[in-house]
Specification:
By secondary structure, the chain is largely without helices or strands. It has a single domain, classed as 2-Layer Sandwich (Alpha-Beta Plaits). It contains two helices and four strands. The strands form two sheets. The protein has a two-stranded antiparallel ribbon with strand order 1-4. Strands 2-3 form a two-stranded antiparallel ribbon. A hairpin with a 4-residue loop joins strand 2 and strand 3. The protein is globular, with a radius of gyration of 12 Å. It starts with a strand and ends in a 12-residue tail after the last helix. The mean pLDDT is 98. The structure holds iron/sulfur cluster (SF4) and FE3-S4 cluster (F3S). Iron/sulfur cluster binds next to loops.
C-alpha cells in the first residue's frame, strides 16, 4: 500500500508535501509530482500537507482517480527526486479545484 498524488496537483504543484516525507519518495515532473509506491512507507504525513488535497491513500482513492495509481508508479521511475519545497506554479490558485486537468499533464 502507498499514498498516491492525484489530478488536482497538476498545474498547482505546491510542493509542501515533500518537506514532511521521511523517506524522500516524491519525484517531480514539469507540472505534477508523484510518489514512488515501492519507497512510500505509508506514514500518511504528506496527506494533510497538500493545500490542493491531491494526496490519497491507495485504498481510499476516489474511483475516478484510480488511473493515478499506475501513473505515480510509472513516472516515479522516470522523473528526478524532489525533497525541498519550491515555489508553487504561477497560476496554482487559479487551477486549484479545476476538473479534467489530466489533459495538461506534462511528462
Ligand atoms: Fe512519504 Fe509518508 Fe507520504 Fe508515503 S505517506 S509519500 S512515506 S510522507
Ligand atoms: Fe502536489 Fe499537493 Fe504536493 S499540489 S506538489 S501533492 S503539496
Amino acid at each position: 500500500m502507498a499514498f498516491v498524488v492525484t489530478e488536482n496537483c497538476i498545474l498547482c504543484k505546491y510542493t509542501t508535501c515533500v518537506e514532511v516525507c521521511p523517506v524522500d519518495c516524491f519525484y517531480e515532473g514539469p507540472n505534477f509530482l508523484v510518489i514512488n509506491p515501492d519507497e512510500c512507507i505509508d506514514c500518511a504525513l504528506c496527506e494533510p500537507e497538500c493545500p490542493a488535497k491531491a494526496i490519497y491513500s491507495e485504498n481510499e482513492i476516489p474511483q475516478n482517480q484510480k488511473k493515478f495509481i499506475e501513473l505515480n508508479s510509472e513516472l516515479s521511475y522516470i522523473w528526478p527526486n524532489i525533497n525541498k519545497k519550491k515555489d508553487q506554479l504561477k497560476y496554482a490558485e487559479k487551477w486549484d479545484g479545476i476538473l479534467g486537468k489530466i489533459k495538461f499533464l506534462e511528462k
